[in-house]
Amino acid sequence: xxxxxxxxxxxxxxxxxxxxxxxxxxxxxxxxxxxxxxxxxxxxxxxxxxxxxxxxxxxxxxxxxxxxxxxxxxxxxxxxxxxxxxxxxxxxxxxxxxxxxxxxxxxxxxxxxxxxxxxxxxxxxxxxxxxxxxxxxxxxxxxxxxxxxxxxxxxxxxxxxxxxxxxxxxxxxxxxxxxxxxxxxxxxxxxxxxxxxxxxxxxxxxxxxxxxxxxxxxxxxxxxxxxxxxxxxxxxxxxxxxxxxxxxxxxxxxxxxxxxxxxxxxxxxxxxxx
Length: 274
Hints:
Elements: E1 13-14, E2 24-33, E3 43-51, E4 55-59, H1 66-73, E5 81-86, E6 89-90, H2 96-106, E7 107-110, H3 122-132, H4 137-150, H5 166-178, E8 184-188, H6 196-211, E9 215-219, H7 223-229, E10 232-237, E11 240-246, E12 263-264
Parallel strand pairs: 4-9, 4-10, 7-8, 8-9
Antiparallel strand pairs: 1-12, 2-3, 2-5, 5-6, 10-11
């Protein structure tokens, strides 16, 4: 296991994209979402491509549509109009059963308040998505223990979440999100309930995952987090895509639609197995 590196100072990046894929893991086309027939749109005519291996931060004020966008990508909600394609599949056309199956196999989710099951041990929390996906017990257990070791929480595998610190619980949540090797990792304010130092450690883990090739979409209110952990930032205002910038671009410069992404160099965090 590669040791967790503390490298937030400077947040240096690597502009080598020679190994990146141009295939879109997420494609939103003309997506509008209304929660009432004549009300204001939560999202309005949004176009967005996210390529494989990209780390995208979604920012915007409260009520701008960030959570709606994340829910649509996760298949937790459906657009009023437009199409949502994730990992090559039109998920807006799937049945509820199909969506549940798709999420288990292709989507990993990390939440601000962890969403762990308090009556299950750490190991059983991590195993649950693998069991729901039909993975053989032996293979699931091997994967869970691999993640427990890599994320440095192996000694807590028989503990219950209530006995862990916030940072430890978020590491468990990350392991749970990764157990099925998802095509896409969605993180909704993953450091919002943590102190600054612990939040930086979790951010380093996410950065290490992206450096290893994991496609990541991060929702945050914090521009410093976006600058350190994402290679591209989009900003929503009143349900519309107001800006789309690559990390390090000059203020006002917009990234090309579906443009190249930038990988982090140095301090890539833990070598989390894919």
